[in-house]
Specification:
The N and C termini lie far apart (about 75 Å). This protein has three domains: about 180 residues, Immunoglobulins (Immunoglobulin-like); about 110 residues, Immunoglobulin-like, CATH 2.60.40; about 120 residues, Immunoglobulin-like (Sandwich), CATH 2.60.40. The chain contains two helices and 32 strands.
Length: about 500
């Protein structure tokens, strides 16, 4: 008996809305369709990049936050190129990806990998079907993820998502800002065709990689992924690097322009996350250990207050994805959220362009999490000049409900490549430039800056501070169980001469 699930309703709505949008683009007077775009900025090793400029055009720019997350408002629907750049150790790092922006729908998981501009290349080529006709609208995806990792290899190594390009009417594509020297899988993917995969090493000068797509037949039934981990991060929705105008605050989470657009459709968008903050719930799964990657179109993401009430919230069109960051503004602190993931076959549309229920796997196991509220740093305040006894400043913050303990991180430079508090960097130490390590704690797995719940301050006891130098600090709260964190604002202070 056929079953109709909400992921198919979602996919059908996407397909229909894109078709209607294409028809209306030629009609005068049609209002612009706007969306919210979010994702993560990182290096190739998944180290988050803080304070990176992210933009679609001059009118739509923002900065990546403490975990590398970003959010862009008021982006027009259709295919767009999302770009990012950052200054790291005096060098410009760049990255970009193509993104299919859905009209009046949030478009999440648009992840961008940055690398030094001098160490990037371009891959281009042609995609055709097995009759030699060009294939328009195919995705070309590049991933460094190992499709069959050995047992001693982390299945979540590599970037958060694939680098993406889209073919034009002639079947041509250009994949820009690709780091040089990657051992990678590159594939062409389109609904109704098996993915055509190739293994390459990215080189400079530019490379030429062509693809031939063969029609699929839904001969393979998808197995459900295994949902391995869930994490939650609550963070301020602004980042300030200095007192200059070089970095501006992130745009308001809900722009008036976007609200006006969705109001015309009689839709309601409720902001449950406290103003001034952003909550991201991250999912990690593995599907390629039980499915053939050439058969996978993507993954359905389900969320609810309980498994029985969960609904489809997104469809990730990336066969190599193993990460999803949910930044829905309706996510509320201290509320339990349950998640599951499904795998979707490349043949998810039948001959009449209706969704085929056989194309989706059963749901994965369920994992749940309850986000923390927003942690507030108090002192030293932003941009203050410390006098008196500057070598031992007192770090102070407001108490946070649900926190089991707090941990302070102090840096002697802006932590562009942030250290992830969930990871152990001490054995061995990361190579220079990969992350910006704090000066206190002196090793990230130590507890020298840990403060248990009930105490909301700690006096500095790290290396001597240099007069006239600017330092940065942040406090992170962790819940009693699971990977549930809250970041304070990233503050900076200067020691008096």
């Amino acid at each position: 008996m056929k079953r109709q699930t909400s992921i198919y309703i979602f996919i059908s709505a996407v397909v229909v809305s894109l078709a209607v949008m294409a028809l209306l683009q030629g009609c005068g007077g049609e209002r612009k369709r706007l969306s919210v775009v979010s994702g993560t900025i990182s290096d190739i090793n998944r180290n988050p990049i803080v304070g990176a400029k992210v933009w679609v055009d001059d009118d739509h720019q923002t900065l990546s936050l403490n975990t590398g997350a970003y959010r862009l408002e008021g982006i027009e629907s259709g295919w767009r190129t999302v770009r990012a750049s950052a200054q790291i150790d005096g060098e410009t790092w760049i990255g970009s990806t193509a993104a299919e922006i859905l009209r009046d729908e949030p478009t999440m998981n648009i992840h961008i990998v940055l690398a030094p501009a001098s160490e990037t290349t371009e891959i281009r080529g042609h995609v055709e079907d097995d009759t030699g006709r060009p294939v328009e609208g195919a995705r070309v995806l590049l991933t460094t993820r190992l499709l069959s990792p050995p047992e001693d290899t982390d299945a979540y190594d590599g970037p958060y998502g694939s680098m993406v390009a889209i073919t034009d009417e002639d079947g041509e594509y250009r994949l820009q800002n690709v780091p040089v020297g990657l051992n990678a899988t590159i594939a062409a993917s389109k609904v109704g065709f098996y993915n055509d995969e190739k293994t390459i090493t990215t080189t400079s000068p530019n490379q030429l990689v062509d693809f031939t797509l063969e029609e699929s037949d839904l001969a393979y039934r998808m197995e459900p992924p295994y949902l391995d981990a869930i994490e939650s991060y609550t963070m301020p929705d602004t980042i300030t690097r200095s007192d200059t105008d070089a970095f501006k605050a992130i745009r308001a989470i809900t722009s008036p322009r976007y609200l006006r657009a969705i109001t015309k459709q009689k839709q309601v968008m409720t902001r449950a996350t406290p103003p001034g903050s952003l909550i991201e719930i991250d999912l990690y799964w593995n599907a390629l250990d039980v499915n053939d990657s050439i058969e996978i179109a993507g993954y359905g993401i389900y969320r609810g207050s309980a498994p029985a009430t969960a609904k489809s919230i997104d469809f990730v069109r990336d066969p190599y994805a193993n990460f999803y960051g949910d930044t829905d503004i309706a996510i509320t602190p201290y509320v339990d959220y349950h998640y599951a993931v499904t795998a979707v076959d490349v043949e998810f549309l039948d001959e009449f362009n209706n969704t085929d229920p056989r194309a989706e796997s059963e749901k994965s196991n369920w994992l749940s999490i309850s986000p923390l509220g927003q942690l507030k740093a108090v002192s030293p305040g932003q941009g203050v000049l410390l006098g008196g006894v500057p070598e031992t400043p007192l770090f102070d913050w407001s108490p946070l409900s649900g926190a089991a303990f707090y941990k302070v991180f102090v840096y002697d430079e802006f932590p562009t490549l942030a250290a992830d508090p969930t990871r152990d960097y001490t054995s061995p130490e990361p190579p220079p430039g990969v992350v910006t390590l704090p000066i206190w704690p002196r090793t990230l797995d130590s507890n020298e800056t840990r403060v248990e719940a009930g105490t909301t301050s700690i006096r500095y006891a790290g290396p001597a501070l240099t007069p006239g130098k600017t330092y940065y600090w942040v406090v992170v709260a962790k819940a009693e169980s699971g990977w549930t964190f809250s970041y304070s604002q990233l503050r900076h202070f200067t020691v008096a001469r």
